[in-house]
Amino acid sequence: xxxxxxxEQMLRQLQAGVATLVGPDLRYGFINEQMRExxxxxxxxxxxxxxxxxxxxxxxxxxPRIHATGTAHTAKACPCGPEHCxxxxxxxxxxxxxxxxxxxxxxxxxxxxxxxxxxxxxxALTTRHLDARLRVLTETAPLMTFTTDAAxxxxxxxxxxxxxxxxPPTADLTAIWPLLxxxxxxxxxxxxxxxARRTGTGWSFEYRLRRYDGVYRWLLSRALPEVHPPDAPVxxxxxxxxxxxxxxxxxxRRRGEAELRFLADSxxxxxxxxxxxxxxxxxxxxxxxxxxLTKEELGPxxxxxxxxQHEQAAAARRWVQSVASGEDFEGEYRLRRHDGVYRWxxxxxxxxxxxxxxxxxxTCSDVEEQYRLRQVLxxxxxxxxRAHHNLDTFVYAASxxxxxxxxxxxxxxxxxxxxxxxxxxxxxxxxxxxxxALTELDSTLIDLATTxxxxxxxxxxxxxxxxxxxxxxxxxxLRPEIMQRGARIxxxxxxxxxxxxxxxxxxxxxxxxxxxxxxxSHPSRPPxxxxxxxxxxxxxxxxxxxxNGLGMHLDDPAHPTFQxxxxxxxxxxxxxxxxxxxxxxxxxxxxxxxxxxVIGEGTTFTIHWTTTDSPA
Length: 616
Known about the structure:
22 strands; alpha+beta; 5 domains; Beta-Lactamase
């Protein structure tokens, strides 16, 4: 065996694949091991078309033309199979006569380089996509974005900045933007930005920037450095956000809080505020002066600690319940003054819930004088109540006790008239006058007892009354008088069939009005009485009693006043107590009585039972 020549050994050791194709029919001559990966098991002397391995078909078609023309050919990054990629080079070589003797085929595996190039290409595409997406996001967001370098040069601003300032896109950003900053803010802004770039940190500050219309608006500028350790930052990326309205609201809120604090300090009452948990956070100046304690000494539960010792536990429990439920707090307690004197105070607190959360606002109002006055008035009221009760008891007892002597006089008078005769021409008239006087005295005593009894009945419980049944019951008791006078009674209660009222009081009112209508009927026509209940537009229950009787004279029909024992028609028997009782019952229950009347035609009584209760 002939040993390989040094040139051949060098070709075998090359990192690239090398093969020779000999003659015009292109038979394999020399094949090194690196080329085996490409041509496979091809042997010397074998036609290349018979053992092409993974050589590209396009290259196989070109090999005869390269041999015929003697022109070299190079193909970069040719895929050779699913996993390999080669740079292929075909060079013709010549014999001693200068004729093309064959082709030298070289293959360099560039698979890793191609993969790296492909990855780099994909990364470049991804970077471009991300850059485009970031640009879209920054240029559509409601803020202005910018980029500056370490020297303070502005390298980029978003279109929002141009729209806000009204500057043209050709403007020198580095030179123009400081001139748009408010003169009072310019030096501060330039200093803080320069200090941040020098130290390699970010910044966040507010300043006023001139808008396109010449108005300065407050903006918040924030920026962070682009960091690539260990190198110093080169670029700063940031955004400008308009905070003008927030700044104005904050200023207005600070002014409002200052004014409210001044107002609270000027009020001569103990004013305080507490957190949602019920811990006091603020005391006005009057509280400090009144208690003689500092805010620190008062602490978060100051007003509770100032209460009378025996009242502190109950007040604290009520305060905890109010804080837990959110219900208003109110109560009267004795509060210690700076001189140690306890004075009565009304303590009130209400919860306010807004965007900043629930808070409590409270006051402690000194009511010492009112409390003492209320005690005096209560004592006087109790004394008057006892005196009034004693007077009613005396009147009731006196009227009851006086009726017995009256009855005795009537009996003696009847016996005297039956057994004794007088020779007097006015005997009959005198006897009738005495009889009338005794009857009036008895009626007066009965009316006095009725007045006292009515006063006591005003405290009877209220219930829902059926107007139809009640009126029928009252009219049934007056049936003899109705039949005697031939009266016609119309009851119309369909609009308001029920009423919340005292049963005894309602019976007394209606009985007195109907009996008066019968008593003071017109002599030339039978009585016609209409009882009607209805509701006013405000929902107030009303009872109307209308008759066609004698009528009466009224000074103020809307607010009539009926005096005890006062009478207009003296020719009709009566004591002048009925209408007084009606007005007293109605007014004592929160209602009022209105009267319209025409002399000789009739009278209408309108009873507004109450302005608070509604009909059932």
